[in-house]
């Protein structure tokens, strides 16, 4: 179902499959062939930040699961305590190698297109903080369950950078135009309760209950006739995905030009310093 455009790039082969288990250094995946449900745990320590190779691994895993005839649904969660994903690895954008920067953004686009449009049913079990790119992964799933006392949102402006149009579109599709406008301007990180209230997440359960809740909800999804469910998702999302598909090259170039500006580099350097200072307090 994912359009042929999404399959133009062959992902790196760094994920190994042992029967119903797939492993890479950053991802652990198991598939329950009885239920058709796969569980993907992100484990790029310390904070599941998204660098080039991790993004390729995530996409590669989704492609492999799509090819598994027995797999119908995917639950995404984190193996890192208290952090779902800290978003993009800021070190990919700070003082970058230009060629790698191109490849990095392309990998982010490709991962997003694969996840957003996958015919698999997807549930994010958000068991930790989920800023920026972490929020993007969450809102690209079909359903979100979050544990209490964490934060989620598109906080890019706090770093002196701007969420690209496709982050904005995915957010708008989730919480609506006005809420997105406010959220992006303020770089708003929502508490779990606020996120539930605004519809950024669909359900809140304790950390202890989150996997069970995700499994329960996923059983509802995989019970629906597969093709009908996948086509209804395509109906809702294709237009948004096509907007990026038709402008991928210029989006990479805009990102690279934006990142290489002195002002942006200064902001990123400052933000990284703040992160380190906060830690030493
Ligand atoms: C014209 C426009 C065109 C195109 C668009 C232009 C621009 C592009 C925009 C790109 C979109 C960006 C998306 C993003 O995802 S940006 C990243 C945003 N992420 C964050 O702001 C999160 C920052 N991190 C935190 O808030 C905390 O770390 C967190 C996740 C709450 C965890 O807290 P804690 O458990 O206390 O852990 P530490 O803070 O001590 O962190 C441990 C360790 O990890 C480092 N780190 C944290 N986050 C990141 C990160 N995102 N990237 C890289 N490194 C990170 C942190 O510095 C610590 O490092 P140390 O070496 O000190 O151990």
UniProtKB/TrEMBL annotation:
The residue range of the signal peptide is: none
Q: Which reaction does it catalyse?
A: (3Z)-dodecenoyl-CoA = (2E)-dodecenoyl-CoA; (3Z)-octenoyl-CoA = (2E)-octenoyl-CoA; (2E)-tetradecenoyl-CoA = (3Z)-tetradecenoyl-CoA; (3Z)-decenoyl-CoA = (2E)-decenoyl-CoA
What are the BP-aspect GO terms? fatty acid beta-oxidation
Q: Which UniProt keywords apply?
A: Acetylation, Fatty acid metabolism, Isomerase, Lipid metabolism, Mitochondrion, Transit peptide
One MF annotation (Gene Ontology) recorded for this entry: delta(3)-delta(2)-enoyl-CoA isomerase activity
Q: Where in the cell is it found?
A: Mitochondrion matrix
UniProt function note: Key enzyme of fatty acid beta-oxidation. Able to isomerize both 3-cis (3Z) and 3-trans (3E) double bonds into the 2-trans (2E) form in a range of enoyl-CoA species, with a preference for (3Z)-enoyl-CoAs over (3E)-enoyl-CoAs. The catalytic efficiency of this enzyme is not affected by the fatty acyl chain length.
Name-wise, this protein is: Enoyl-CoA delta isomerase 1, mitochondrial
What organism does the record attribute this protein to?
Mytilus galloprovincialis
């Amino acid at each position: 179902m994912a359009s042929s455009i999404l399959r133009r790039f062959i992902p790196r082969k760094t994920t190994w499959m042992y029967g119903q288990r797939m492993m890479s250094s950053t991802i652990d995946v198991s598939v329950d062939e009885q239920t058709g449900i796969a569980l993907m745990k992100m484990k790029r320590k310390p904070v599941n930040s998204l660098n080039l190779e991790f993004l390729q691994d995530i996409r590669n895993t989704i492609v492999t699961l799509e090819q598994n005839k027995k797999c119908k649904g995917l639950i995404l969660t984190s193996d890192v305590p208290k952090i779902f994903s800290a978003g993009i690895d800021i070190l990919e954008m700070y003082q970058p190698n230009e060629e790698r920067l191109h490849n990095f953004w392309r990998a982010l686009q490709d991962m997003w297109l694969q996840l957003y449009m996958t015919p698999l049913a997807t549930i994010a079990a958000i068991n930790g903080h989920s800023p920026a790119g972490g929020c993007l992964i969450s809102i690209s799933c079909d359903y979100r369950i979050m544990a209490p006392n964490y934060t989620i949102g598109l906080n890019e402006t706090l770093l002196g950078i701007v969420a690209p149009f496709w982050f904005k579109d995915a957010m708008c599709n989730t919480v609506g135009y006005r809420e997105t406008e406010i959220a992006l301007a303020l770089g708003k990180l929502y508490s779990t309760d606020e996120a539930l209230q605004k519809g950024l997440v669909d359900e809140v359960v304790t950390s202890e209950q989150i996997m069970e809740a995700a499994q329960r909800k996923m059983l509802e999804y995989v019970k629906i006739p597969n093709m009908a469910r996948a086509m209804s998702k395509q109906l809702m999302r294709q237009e948004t995905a096509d907007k990026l598909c038709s402008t991928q090259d210029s989006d990479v170039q805009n990102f690279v030009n934006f990142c290489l500006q002195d002002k942006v580099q200064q902001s990123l350097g400052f933000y990284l310093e703040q992160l380190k200072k906060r830690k030493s307090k």
